[in-house]
């Protein structure tokens, strides 16, 4: 499935606890993302960056930091992603912090409802991002997008796209998780979110993990990948605001991406939380571009398929 690709930059760190993810889109461009995709025969249009409110860097109000600004950015992203999908294009969202998953995934879910597609979301992340204001003292909304998408959060966020909840937990597969707050862990178990944490990957291997996560998809499945760069081990990907040791190695991450590519179902992508201010010579952005290339068919495979 070689859909034409649209790049959408979303330069904000509005939902994060550290500044700098707003520079992520440019770092991915500097690392050559468009040229790399075009080298695989893909037709790529860079739509530039969305606009939105600046980061006021305020403490939480009623448990949420920067709620009006988060709503504004995610609403703009929802509209942009939905427009690209309606045009038959594959949107790649260049974040920005991971609160933006609400805008992109609510748009994908809306598109699937309109076209009768089955949705599968792979959430590649060190964190479950299933917090609520009651569970997290920080109020940083980048720790809440999956909960909000599943209907747990303020109406302004759960209703983006006009349908609450935007998704149900059964469409999500979380991979690489290794940092979850105690209350968040209980909540994840309560709603039945399917989580392949690092212990599972250590015990079962990345191949088995991905086979499980991709099981049950068919030709009517829209596969959305939400790739938080802190999914990767910080030894290879230092340029993120919330590093957690013990993530997937380069080879494990490559295998993950290659197995997604093998399905031929990838139809939308987020690349989130890249923070060039914390990076070393744009190394993390270059690694992210390398892995995105694998999602679109670069393969290390020598044997005949």
From TrEMBL:
GO terms for cellular component: cytoplasm. Its cofactor is Mn(2+). It is an enzyme of class 3 (hydrolase). Mn(2+) binds at residues 98, 125, 127, 129, 228, 230. Keywords: Arginine metabolism, Hydrolase, Manganese, Metal-binding. Gene3D superfamilies: Ureohydrolase domain. It catalyses: L-arginine + H2O = urea + L-ornithine. PANTHER family: ARGINASE. Belongs to the arginase family. This is Arginase. The lineage of its organism: Bacteria, Pseudomonadati, Pseudomonadota, Betaproteobacteria, Burkholderiales.
């Amino acid at each position: 499935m070689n859909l034409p690709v649209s790049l959408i930059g979303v330069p904000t760190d509005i939902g994060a606890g550290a500044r700098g993810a707003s520079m992520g889109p440019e770092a991915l461009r500097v690392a050559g993302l468009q040229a790399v995709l075009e080298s695989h025969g893909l037709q790529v249009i860079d739509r530039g960056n969305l606009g939105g409110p600046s980061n006021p860097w305020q403490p939480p109000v009623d448990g949420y930091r920067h709620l009006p600004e988060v709503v504004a950015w995610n609403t703009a992203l929802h509209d942009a992603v939905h427009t690209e999908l309606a045009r038959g294009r594959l949107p790649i969202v260049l974040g920005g912090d991971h609160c933006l998953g609400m805008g992109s995934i609510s748009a994908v879910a809306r598109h699937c409802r309109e076209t009768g597609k089955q949705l599968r979301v792979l959430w590649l992340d060190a964190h479950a991002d299933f917090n609520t204001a009651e569970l997290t003292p920080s109020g940083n909304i980048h720790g809440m997008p999956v909960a909000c998408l599943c209907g747990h959060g303020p109406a302004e966020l759960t209703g983006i796209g006009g349908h609450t909840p935007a998704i149900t937990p059964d469409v999500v597969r979380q991979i690489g998780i290794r940092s979850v707050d105690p209350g968040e862990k209980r909540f994840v178990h309560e709603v039945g979110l399917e989580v392949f944490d690092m212990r599972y990957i250590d015990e079962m291997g990345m191949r088995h993990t991905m086979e499980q996560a991709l099981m049950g998809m068919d030709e009517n499945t829209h596969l959305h990948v939400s790739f938080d760069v802190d999914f990767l081990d910080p030894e290879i990907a230092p340029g993120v605001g919330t590093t957690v040791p013990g993530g997937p190695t380069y080879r494990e991450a490559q295998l993950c991406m290659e197995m997604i590519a093998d399905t031929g179902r990838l139809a939308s992508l987020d690349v989130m939380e890249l923070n060039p201010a914390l990076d070393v010579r744009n190394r993390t952005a270059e690694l992210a571009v390398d892995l995105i290339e694998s999602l679109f068919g670069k393969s290390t495979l020598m044997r005949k398929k």
